[in-house]
Specification:
There is one protein chain. The protein is mainly α. It contains 13 helices and no strands. Helix 5 packs antiparallel against helix 6 and helix 9 runs antiparallel to helix 10. It is extended. The C terminus is likely disordered.
């Protein structure tokens, strides 16, 4: 009996808890060290994973964009066909078919218009090359006649040009193989992207047809994995993210369409060149908040510069006025305060999104950051509420560090609002 008492270990609940926390902390630190050491391999696996699921990502994006149109058509068909007997599957099928047909028509029309405009622009530039050469010859003759010192300088430089050209050619020839490989890889990547985009259409059809089932499965998994008290916050977060993303994307698409039409009408009145092509460029780039019109103005101004340089400066002024109209009048009317971000955070989201994910990051950086910003605001408001402190930013502008602002006891209108706890329905 005494031997058994010696071997018996007296486990202490407090020390057991401390030991578990130490083991968890050590495991997290070890995982972080492994991530730092093998970061390249981990990122390579992540990139490969996203390449594999690229068709699914395209399908989710297409379904998310098409869902509002599909819902509108579905309501219309319900009024037309469901007077005596409901036909939900027929309504859904017709709505998806018309929505996808409309989307394909828009994409094909834009591509055809762009290709035709680019072809016409290239042909116009090629036809204008003799005029450019003649103007350049006249300018050279004038300079050579009026400024003989320039002639002497050119003659001195011609003696060194031939060796430099030979050296440049010798350096360029070995690089032609690398350039051809990069062109081939770019062409293959474009074909793969088109394949993923086409498969994404098929995925989007399945997602739209069974979106209620997928939403119910997401709810079921949420309630299975998390406590009931936490599920309410998760579903509310999803609803907030869906509201922000859908409101921003649909509003920005409408805003960009209107800006493109305004640009087309004004350029047609001004009788400028490349009206359709420049209007499409301005409309598409306008999807990027704040900087979009300026990004579109650079290639558009270069097009005008090659054909009619005197139109460049008026065009730049026109883009500035158009951007001011969109940023101060049209945009706020359509979007309202859908993001809730100040101009600084908008620029921050564009820079970070563009730096990490390129063009798509610039498009989605603002709504994604708006969701993160809203969730962070709710989290900090919750922490301040637990400490019985005010969560209004204005109360901290004139802060007394010894007496922080207390929470207001009066019930505000936002407190009276009923919080939606249902999962988003891809609205």
């Amino acid at each position: 009996m005494k031997g058994r008492d010696v071997l018996k270990v007296d486990f202490n609940k407090k020390y057991n808890t401390i030991s578990v926390y130490c083991i968890i902390t050590f495991a997290i630190c070890l995982a972080l060290v492994l991530v730092c050491i093998r970061s390249n391999e981990i990122f390579a696996y992540i990139q490969q994973f996203f390449k594999v699921i690229a068709p699914v990502i395209w399908g989710i994006a297409i379904a998310y964009i098409c869902n509002p149109v599909m819902k509108l058509l579905e309501k219309l068909f319900q009024k037309l066909f469901d007077k005596k007997k409901p036909h939900p599957k027929l309504n859904r099928s017709l709505s998806i078919f018309i929505t996808m047909l409309l989307l394909i028509t828009i994409i094909v029309s834009i591509l055809a218009l762009v290709i035709i405009q680019v072809r016409d622009s290239v042909m116009e530039i090629l036809y204008s090359i003799p005029n450019y050469i003649n103007q350049l010859e006249d300018l050279v003759v004038k300079l050579l006649g009026d400024y003989p010192e320039i002639v002497r300088e050119i003659e001195a430089q011609l003696e060194t040009i031939q060796p430099k050209l030979i050296e440049f050619a010798n350096n360029l020839i070995p690089k032609l193989g690398d350039i051809s490989l990069k062109v081939k890889d770019g062409a293959i990547g474009f074909v793969v992207s088109m394949k993923d985009f086409i498969i994404g259409f098929i995925v989007a059809i399945y997602l739209l047809f069974s979106k209620e089932t997928f939403t119910a499965q997401a709810r079921k998994i949420t309630y299975a994995l998390f406590p009931k008290s936490l599920c309410k916050g998760i579903l509310r977060t999803c609803a907030k993210a869906n509201q922000t993303l859908s409101g921003f994307l649909s509003g920005k698409l409408l805003d960009s369409l209107i800006i493109g039409i305004i640009c087309f009408v004004c350029m047609r009145i001004m009788n400028w060149e490349f009206v359709a092509l420049i209007s499409i460029i301005i409309g598409v780039t306008n999807i990027i908040p704040f900087f979009g019109p300026f990004f579109g103005a650079v290639p558009s101004a270069l097009l005008l510069l090659m054909t009619n340089p005197k139109h460049v400066i008026p065009f730049v002024f026109f883009i500035i006025i158009l951007q001011q109209f969109d940023g101060n009048i049209l945009g706020p009317k359509i979007l309202g305060d859908s993001t809730g971000l100040s101009p600084f955070w908008v620029m921050f989201a564009i820079f970070v999104g563009g730096g990490l994910f390129g063009f798509m990051g610039m498009l989605l950086g603002v709504p994604v950051f708006a969701v993160i910003y809203a969730l962070a605001s709710e989290f900090f408001a919750y922490l301040l509420k637990k400490k019985r402190l005010s969560h209004s930013t204005s109360d901290y502008k004139a802060l007394d560090i010894n007496n922080p602002p207390a929470a207001k006891t009066a019930v505000t209108s936002s407190d009276k609002e009923e919080v939606k706890t249902t999962a988003p329905d891809m609205k």
